[in-house]
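User: Please predict the structure of the protein below. I'd like the answer in structure-token form so I can feed it into my own downstream comparison script.

Assistant: Understood. Taking the following sequence of 193 residues as input:
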Amino acid sequence: MKFVHSFCVILLLIGAVSCNYRRVTLYGTPATDYHHTQKKLTRYQKIYGLEKVIFDTRVVYFDHDLRLKYVDEYADLFRLSVAEKDALLQQELADDAAYDDFYIAHFSSERGYQNLQENVEDKKIWTLRLVDDTSELRPLSITPLKRTNHQEYFFPIMDHFSKLYKVRFRKSTSTTKTLSMYSPARSTTFEWK
């Protein structure tokens, strides 16, 4: 009887302590509202060749809801003042009104296929387009992001082999967004409704 009582007390203590560490799962991955929403907005493609992965791509659409949760998570994590959080929120809302942003974590085992932002026409391998109901938009910018602890926390789609890019398009009014990636070897699409 004493053993059962002690065991129950230990379980309650473990439960109380684990509530304080709600930001990560048992596997050590982030587990916040922001990360749960991001997971729902992530699309994934892995293409295999005969003996290897040709490319492995994960794409997150940074929609309005995810932007709001990003502001909350960022403000909470870095303990922003009310004024700092409001400034960040206003910037994200302005970006949301003007742009469709995608974060792409991309890996390729093929030489040259890792790079998404090559602008030299004879070296260009990937072409990215945002297709909606009425048009096909070219990216306004493709920005490679440095691997930092900050990026790894906010974008766990990035693994140790992939490169992370922020791809920005002019805002599309369509409710369905399709990001298309074309290359000589393979083409793929990612869709959000």
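That's the full token string. Residues 11-21 have pLDDT under 50 and may be disordered.
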